[in-house]
UniProtKB/TrEMBL annotation:
Residues 176-288 form the Endoribonuclease YicC-like C-terminal domain. Keywords: Endonuclease, Hydrolase, Nuclease. Pfam families: YicC-like_C, YicC-like_N. GO terms for molecular function: hydrolase activity; RNA endonuclease activity. Its cofactor is a divalent metal cation. It comes from the Bacteria. Residues 2-154 form the Endoribonuclease YicC-like N-terminal domain. Belongs to the YicC/YloC family. This is TIGR00255 family protein.
């Protein structure tokens, strides 16, 4: 299976005491880079969440967002902040001692004091278990989206491979015809320049010319690189970096063919191959 580095998954879980929402999204990146956005009360889950994601993913910039909203319920009602209440009592006594005419704090004053009422929350351990279960579920969907995208990228790359093979098949027969044409032109020019043309000189010039325009080696290497691309794609796994290296090699051979070209058709073929390789390289950047 080929995996794209682009993926997305979002899941929500409604519980009796609150609502969990988790979102995973990723884009391409050279390495695995995981960023978390979680509530403060669940910050202690980050190491476990990171470990889980690291075991399942290889590359990509991953953004993991976890949110929790507490619902109003009889099971977790508002509670009085007794610690703050004691401090207010001490403060009230101190003020009355210094200012006997000052008014005592009323019940209404106390209830409106910031932080005096707080929502009771479920045990952190229960929240942690629920959050990790939610992450596992979201991760399965996240990997599935990356796999579907990866299959599309694989199909695109294989299509480009076939197009390059067709271009190579077109280029191969052109070279012998170029040599024959050059031999005829060279012989005619030497015949004009010399009364007694030298066959050895003609053969030497033809040999030098054929060496300069011979692209059999480049064509063979291109075919070998294309075979390796297909093998890697069929093998699957984390293959992005290996494919990226092969794109460099394909582009190198296409450039060499272009530099050796003495025929407009071969030059066109070289340019078309480079365009296809560049299209492949762009897609490879998104493969894990």
């Amino acid at each position: 299976m080929i995996y794209s580095m682009t993926g997305y998954a979002a899941i929500t879980n409604e519980l009796p005491y609150g609502s969990f929402s988790l979102e995973l999204r990723s884009v391409n990146n050279r390495y695995l880079d995981i960023q978390f956005r979680v509530p403060d009360e669940l910050r202690m889950l980050e190491p476990a969440m990171r470990e889980l994601l690291t075991t399942q993913l290889n590359r990509g910039k991953i953004d993991c967002r976890l949110s929790f909203s507490l619902l109003s319920s009889t099971e977790y009602p508002q509670q009085l902040n007794t610690e703050l209440l004691e401090k207010l009592g001490v403060l009230n006594h101190t003020i009355k001692s210094a200012l006997p005419e000052a008014r005592n704090l009323s019940v209404i004053d106390v209830l409106h004091w910031p932080g005096i009422l707080k929502n009771s929350t479920p045990p952190t351990q229960d929240l942690g278990k629920t959050a990790m279960t939610l992450l596992c579920t979201a991760l399965d969907e996240f990997k599935a989206t990356r796999a579907r995208e990866g299959e599309k990228l694989k199909a695109i790359l294989l299509e480009r491979v076939n197009q390059i093979r067709q271009l190579l098949a077109t280029a191969s027969p052109l070279i012998p015809a170029l040599l024959v044409a050059f031999q005829q032109r060279l012989k005619f020019r030497l015949q004009e320049a010399m009364v007694n043309h030298e066959d050895d000189r003609i053969r030497q010039e033809i040999s030098l010319f054929s060496g300069k325009i011979d692209i059999d080696e480049e064509l063979s290497r291109l075919q070998a690189h294309l075979d390796e691309v297909e093998r890697i794609l069929s093998q699957g796994g984390a293959v992005g970096k290996r494919l990226d290296f092969l794109m460099q090699e394909l582009n190198r051979e296409a450039n060499t063919i272009g530099s050796k070209s003495v025929d407009i058709e071969v030059s066109k073929i070289s340019m078309e191959i480079k365009v296809l390789v560049e299209q492949m390289r762009e897609q490879v950047q998104n493969i894990e």
